[in-house]
Every structure is written in structure tokens, then in C-alpha cells.
Amino acid sequence: MVLDSWTMPWLSEKGFKIWLEVSPQERAKRLAQRDGVSVQEAAEMIRKKDGKTKQIYKKLYDFKLGEDYSPFDVVLDSELLTSEEVFDTLSLIIDRLVLKRGR
Question: What is the pTM of this model?
Fold first, then answer.
């Protein structure tokens, strides 16, 4: 397994780290729409995947994925945002906080 601090922000002090938060229900709705499955099927797929992923991260890195947000500079609740709105919001945040532009 290749350890990549880009995908595992708690392993590196470098960079600007962003967590996108959305409820399990909204995730299921979006997955169902994207993949053409029922919302119930999507919810079950997410539940299983999240459970396995959390176990792996806890075992390998002693990190509570989806519970410990301390490694992140920004946590964005994207529940009510479209993908375009998420992009626009993150662009603004990066411009202002990281690149120090637009002040």
C-alpha cells in the first residue's frame, strides 16, 4: 500500500486540508442518481464501505475517519450545495486563506 499524504492529511503537516461533509441520506441520494440504483441500495453500499474504511483507518493509522476533523483546515458542509457551489466556495476559501488574494 502506498501512503500518500494527499489522500491522508493527518500524515502530513503540509498543504491546506479540506473535508467535505454531507449526511448519509444525501450521499445515498447523490450516489443513487449518479449510478442509477435505488436510494436504499446506495445507502447500504455507503454503510458497508464506510464501515470497512473506518476499520482500516483505525487499525492502520489510529484515526477516527469521519469523526476527528482536527487535521483539516476547513470543514465544509456541502449538504445543500451543488457541485458548482462547492467548487466556487472552495475557490474563494483557497484564494483568501491560502493564496491571500482578494482582501
Answer: 0.75
Burial class (CB in 10 A: 0-12, 13-18, 19+), 80: exposed
**Cβ pair 13, 5 in contact under 8 A:** no
Q: What digits encode the pLDDT tens for the residues 41-69?
A: 999 999 999 999 899 988 888 878 888 88
Which residue carries 491546506 as its cell?
16
Tell me the β-bridge partners of 19.
Answer: 75
Domains and CATH numbers, the chain: 9-98 (3.40.50.300)
pLDDT in tens, 65-100: 888 888 889 999 999 999 999 999 999 999 998 888
Separation CA 8–CA 11 (nearest Å): 6
**Torsion region of 93: left, alpha or beta (phi above 0 gives left; psi -120 to 50 gives alpha):** alpha
